[in-house]
Fold enoyl-CoA hydratase.
Amino acid sequence: MAFENILVETFDAVGLIRLNRPQALNALNAALLGELNAALEQFDADERIGAIVITGSEKAFAAGADIKEMQALDFVGAYRSDFLGEWEKITRARKPVIAAVAGYALGGGCELAMMCDFIIAAKTAKFGQPEITLGIMPGMGGTQRLARFIGKAKAMDLCLTGRMMDADEAERSGLVARVVPSEDLLDEALRAAARIASFSRPVVMMAKETVNRAYETTLGEGLRFERRLFHSMFALEDQKEGMSAFVEKRTPAFKNR
Ligand code: HXC
């Protein structure tokens, strides 16, 4: 499939998607969204792929939803088309998705990064929800995911003042898993993804699903969900292989079954 707003590559078992609208700092428009969803679906369905990385450019992961596309939108149009609703599809990928963020991750860009499973940031990364400066508020999860991921104080601060947060503050706040020098960003993200892809696919997918469950349910239900899936892992050949390899002091050869 030919894409115009993203670039897609594979590195062995890792799928890489680069947002590619440099003229608009990777502003997220409908065309880009359609391509991103299609590429993610392809990688998710591809048995050779074990993890996915989404990245932008050195200057911008994405500077937000496309303001020029939204400018003339009216209420009825937004409501009837469920404007931005399609973005939730990103979170349906069952394989892990890492956001590798350099430069601006603003508005929808910050929200897209938060839809991924974790964020690796370059020192240059800047996160923010500047919608308030445009006469709107976040609409792709910013108010909800930020509040859950970094707490009320910082979520309110970012959503109400529209200020930006640098990579170190984002890491201190728990928004970002790792901060790395800019020149190492892609390598670090690809290495993390390759490591994930080297483990048992079903176990990786269940671990992702279970951590995400923590944000959808009570502690009691989440713990029960975890324990039941944990029990099911003893039906996997990969559990026998992983534990035998440990006991026999060799590297496991997972079969993804
Ligand atoms: C459309 C955008 C854009 C955006 C940048 N551009 N951000 N176009 N939508 N979100 C375009 C600019 O218009 C410009 O195009 C080109 O990209 C380069 O941007 P500059 O502003 O010239 O770059 P710079 O001076 O380096 O400033 C970078 C910046 C600034 C600080 C990131 O671009 C900026 O403030 N952008 C908007 C950030 C923002 O408000 N994001 C939230 C969007 S709302 P031209 O053609 O002029 O050269 C949102 C809502 C989410 O995301 C969901 C709820 C609805």
